[in-house]
Design a protein that fits this description.
Blueprint (H helix, E strand, L loop, with lengths): L1 H6 L6 H8 L3 H30 L5 H10 L6 H10 L39 E10 L4 E9 L4 E8 L4 H14 L7 E5 L3 H4 L1 H9 L2 E5 L9 H15 L7 H16 L13 H13 L7 H8 L1
Parallel strand pairs: 1-4, 4-5
Antiparallel strand pairs: 1-2, 2-3
């Protein structure tokens, strides 16, 4: 009632509105201050619910990063508390991965050059891997190439076989879209026959790229590529029923190009997407004072 009476007074001063509403000025301010936290909490809770529903696989830390990019001054503990109270848990699940690597071959293997590398820019270290994707009654296989600096997928291919041409197609996409300086790029993979065969190694050498391979029994040597595959399975593939190879290709393409590369926040990139990370680094290189604003980043990430 008090608020309604006050709103009817147009441009009157606070003192006049309080007198008309028959309340003290101190009482008005006490009521206003008391209502502010509740309104802010309600607005924040609403935004957390919206983001949690549109980003089902984000935990509280990524939701916090999104909120900050949108201008909210909030810490991760508060976001975690609200999500727990509202039962807004990220979707998790176990995945099964059949073997896609056959290292029992006659081809040469190469030492692990990536083990001690810390990329400082793009096209210094690429990592590659292959995984399976389940269709209704069959399997197809996905080969990817990522830039280890930005975690961006720079090449990928999907096919119904595990021949070397699958990995080569992903590599050719990467070479077509990224400028490579001969002698400055290391390509790291497991010891699978697709990466060790003559055709693949010859293509690397022709482009001036140094081959590198994981040690025996050390899948964590290729942890970045493995991490992407887990994300793909967890956030796109698991629980889906693709009718055929064409549908799987379209859905995976949308996930890689629109979600993972452009919008998904990566904790190792200070909760930025690979594209935003590369753009910021490029801007800072060309102009040390030019950076993408939080509003720009939020537009790409939400």
């Amino acid at each position: 009632m008090i608020q309604a009476q006050i709103q009817q007074q147009g441009d009157l001063r606070i003192e006049q509105m309080c007198r008309l509403a028959d309340v003290s000025r101190a009482g008005y301010y006490r009521h206003w201050r008391a209502s502010q936290p509740a309104r802010e909490e309600t607005s924040l809770r609403d935004m957390i619910q919206r983001l949690s529903l549109s980003h089902r696989f984000y935990g509280y830390r990524r939701i916090t990063a999104l909120l900050r990019q949108m201008g909210w001054a909030v810490n991760h503990k508060r976001v975690q508390r609200i999500r727990q109270n509202d039962n807004l848990l990220c979707v998790t699940g176990r995945t099964f991965r059949p073997a896609t690597t056959d290292s029992r071959h006659r081809f040469s293997v190469y030492p692990n050059l990536a083990r001690r590398m810390t990329p400082t820019g793009s096209n210094q270290l690429w990592v590659a891997d292959i995984t399976y994707v389940r269709l209704g009654e069959a399997f197809v296989y996905l080969a990817v190439v990522l830039d280890a600096w930005s975690r961006r997928v720079v090449g990928w291919a999907l096919a119904d076989h595990l021949q070397a041409s699958l990995a080569l197609e992903a590599l050719e996409m990467a070479l077509a879209t990224r400028p490579v300086v001969p002698g400055e790029l290391v390509h790291h993979s497991d010891r699978g026959v697709q990466y060790a065969c003559g055709d693949y190694v010859e293509r690397l050498v022709a482009a001036g790229i140094q081959p590198s391979m994981s040690r025996v029994g050390c899948p964590w040597d290729n942890a970045m590529a493995e991490s992407f595959m887990r994300t793909l399975k967890h956030e796109e593939v698991d629980g889906q029923t693709y009718r055929d190879l064409a549908e799987a290709h379209d859905r995976i393409e949308a996930f890689i190009e629109e979600v993972y590369n452009r919008r998904r926040l990566h904790s190792a990139l200070a909760y930025r997407s690979p594209v935003v990370f590369e753009m910021n680094e490029s801007l800072q290189t060309s102009s040390p004072h030019a950076v993408m604003t939080s509003a720009d980043a939020a537009t790409m990430c939400v």
